[in-house]
Design brief:
433 residues; alpha/beta; Rossmann fold; 2 domains; 9-stranded mixed β-sheet; two-stranded antiparallel ribbon; 13 strands; elongated
Length: 433
């Protein structure tokens, strides 16, 4: 006997499973890629942006010059020994930036490019056939959080016009000479200038945190005495602050001189070592977190993932290789008194409750033997005495029913119980011959 054929074909079932699995994997990938609709993602001042205030040109330039460059969305990279380039936005949390700069002090060299521009898409009447990443810049938006960063608090950030810039052996003009962002007041002289404008204000400099950085000191024209160099800590990594982003963004990379100065500043920040360069995407709001999809394909979880995929393939192959409709299952319990007795016996055997069978079986046999001997006594003890007396009158004095019934009630193991029950059954057979 078999059931009726399945109304769904194997192809349709496979299609449903494929669509469901694909949707689930896409959902996991979207979490890992950071497709969360974060409003901060409207900012364009990051390494993947082709807008004027983005840094994709610097990324491409460094890659073509042979550097190992990575654009990282994972916060775990912050602890690695790499040259990390931070591009905070106008809405960055100052406490997070301060904590990150402190953590990087003993992790690896860091270069921080301060924001200046506010970008917006081109209006419809001006955009025309322009690429989607073209933007319109508006100035006057120096980071309001600058003085809220503990390390920056003694300094003052200002804007104004200039006639040009110089440093690292280069000089030239900036893309927008009327709106220049610079550090105009450094009370404690902890920030040594690497690039300045014609007015002497600092456009880029390195932070003196007691570390030994000979390449940066040479780029800034700073000379330390032997005693000062002896006290400097070689375990402290460099920190470079770029106050004028037009020195390194796409707007600034349009000029060869500024591009060369940007590369030389990065080389000086490495301080003679060859680090991998990582552009951080978490501060602009493009960070991502670990998820099950990415973890599943990394050691040590990769082995378990492969085993699970192979198991799914085997199960699917077995399911689709079945021929014809499934056979109807047999009934769990067969009908009839015999099967009912077997089921009860199996239950007793599984539960290991043999000792509960002795007394009921002895009472049942006493009733059956008493009926054969025409004994109508209801009391169990008196009935068994009457059975022994009746057996003695029939010449079966050696057959003691009460003794055998008592042995059955006290039996515990299966073998002992079967022997005692067989003895009572033998008395019944003698009376029915």
């Amino acid at each position: 006997m078999s059931r009726r054929a399945n109304p769904f074909s194997a192809g349709k079932v496979a299609l449903v499973l494929l669509v469901g699995a694909s949707a689930f994997l896409l959902f996991l990938y979207a979490i890992g890629a950071g497709w969360t609709g974060d409003s901060r993602r409207s900012a364009t001042g990051h390494a993947n942006s082709n807008a004027l205030d983005g840094y994709s040109a610097l990324v491409t330039l460094l890659e073509r010059r042979g550097y190992s460059v990575e654009v990282a969305r994972d916060r775990a990279v912050r602890q690695e020994q790499v040259l990390m380039i931070l591009t905070p936005g106008l809405t960055t949390d100052p406490a997070e930036l301060q904590e990150l700069m402190q953590a990087r002090r003993f992790a690896g060299p860091t270069l921080v490019i301060l924001p200046k521009w506010m970008s917006a898409p081109l209006p419809a009447e001006l955009g025309g056939d322009a690429p989607s990443d073209w933007v319109r810049l508006s100035g006057g938006f120096t980071p309001v959080w600058f003085e809220q960063v503990e390390d920056f608090e003694p300094m003052e950030l200002g804007v104004g016009s200039t006639r040009g810039w110089s440093g690292l052996g280069y000089s030239g003009q900036l893309p927008d000479q009327e709106y220049i962002q610079a550090v105009i007041d450094i009370p404690e002289k902890q920030l040594f200038p690497i690039i300045t404008d014609t007015e002497g204000d600092l456009l880029a400099g390195y932070w003196n945190r007691g570390g030994f950085h000979p390449y940066l000191a040479d780029a800034a024209g700073v000379r330390f005495s032997e005693e000062e160099e002896y006290l400097q800590d070689e375990g402290t990594y460099p920190l470079v602050i770029v106050a004028e982003p037009d020195l390194m963004n796409n707007y600034g990379m349009a000029d060869m001189t500024r591009a060369r100065a940007a590369v030389d500043m990065i080389d000086a920040t490495m301080d003679g070592y060859e680090y991998n360069i990582v552009f951080d995407m978490t501060l602009p709001g493009y960070g991502t977190a670990e998820n099950l999809l990415t973890l599943a394909f990394r050691p040590p979880f990769l082995a378990a993932t492969l085993c699970l995929l192979i198991a799914f393939m085997v199960i699917g192959w077995r399911a689709f290789r079945r021929f014809g409709p499934p056979v109807a299952e047999d009934e769990v319990f067969a009908r009839g008194k015999t099967q009912l007795a077997r089921n009860g016996a199996a239950l007793v055997e599984r539960a290991r409750r043999w000792h509960l069978l002795g007394a009921p079986y002895a009472s049942m046999m006493a009733g059956r033997v008493a009926a054969l001997l025409n004994i109508r006594i209801q009391d169990a003890e008196h009935r068994e005495e009457a059975i022994d007396a009746a057996l003695a009158r029939r010449g079966l004095a050696g057959t003691n029913f009460r003794e055998k019934a008592h042995a059955l009630r006290n039996a515990r193991g299966p073998a002992e119980m079967i022997r005692a029950a067989s003895a009572l059954k033998a008395i019944e057979r003698m009376l029915t011959r």
